[in-house]
Amino acid sequence: MQGTSPSVLDVAGQPLACSWSGGKDSALALHRAIRAGGRPLALLSMLTETGQRSRSHGLHVSMLRAQARALGVPLVTRSATWGDYEAAFLSALQEMSAVGVRAVVFGDIDGESNRRWAEMLCTRGGLRAVEPLWARPRDELLHEFLGLGFRATLVAVRDGVLDSAMLGRTLDETLLQEFVRAGIDLSGEGGEYHTVVTRGPLFAHPIELAPGQRVLRDGCWFLDVAVAGT
User: Fold this and answer.
1) How far is CA 20 from the centre of its chain?
2) Pair type for strands 220-227 and 209-217
3) How many angstroms separate the first and last alpha carbons of the chain?
4) What is the pLDDT of residue 1?
5) Alpha-carbon span 43 to 13, nearest angstrom
6) Which fold, 138-227?
7) Is 48 within 8 Å of 82 (Cβ atoms)?
8) What secondary structure letter does DSSP report for 32?
9) Alpha carbon of 218 to those of 25, 49, 55, 87, 159: distances in Å?
């Protein structure tokens, strides 16, 4: 298999999976892949060892399921510790390859080690890694995301970098200007913040959020969010 990430234009007609965090970058990467003709068969989300929350954004699995329903794409999950994360991810890739998936979409923008990791595991799983957002300017991606009508809410901020009062706010032009003044990576590539996407052009219906408690964990403030009415 090819190890290098193909252009997103190479996915026309191909069955895809998306490495799904539930946040803005995976949503925009999936949108770009679908716009290029890819056919999503699965969303792959990695959970903590309890199977209750996503490893990346701390989202409850019920939120990921609600996103999958709104997107009309089946959700595939794996629970793992950090120690067996890679083996669990590879196992999921191999199973998806066996049922016809040919490429996996990732939402990386930079971070060469992340890209190499994705390419290595996809190659071992008989798949191709696709990076639709790779090396694109942050402001270009964010303005594209907002211009398409996606809506995202801040659910995590790095303690001491961004004010925890930002939790629960909608990602918009005003918030982006606050990020500029704070001097952070606009897309949060350094882990400055994470989002959950609740509506957009890929969603059959919006997801209404019910905010819960704020918790400081591993150097980040997390806002627990649930699907309203559940």
Assistant:
1) 4
2) antiparallel
3) 44
4) 37
5) 17
6) putative n-type atp pyrophosphatase, domain 2 (3.90.1490)
7) no
8) H
9) 22, 16, 12, 23, 9
* β-bridge mates for residue 220, sequence order: 158, 217
Find residue 75's DSSP bridge partners: 43
Supply the pTM of this predicted model: 0.95
Query: To the nearest 10°, the Cα dihedral for 149, 110, 178, 209?
Result: 50
Tell me how far apart the alpha carbons of residues 88 and 81 are, in angstroms, rounded to a whole number: 9
Q: Does the fold of domain 138-227 match that of domain 8-130? A: no
Q: What is the pLDDT along the chain (230 residues), one digit of tens a residue?
A: 334 455 566 899 999 999 999 999 999 999 999 999 999 999 999 999 999 999 989 999 999 999 999 999 999 999 999 999 999 999 999 999 999 999 999 999 998 999 999 999 999 999 999 999 999 999 999 999 999 999 999 999 999 999 999 999 999 999 999 999 999 999 999 999 999 999 999 999 999 999 999 999 999 999 999 999 87
Residue type, 117: W
Show me where the domains of the chain are located. Answer: 8-130, 138-227
Write down the CATH number for the domain with range 8-130: 3.40.50.620
Q: Which residues pair with 150 in a beta bridge?
A: none
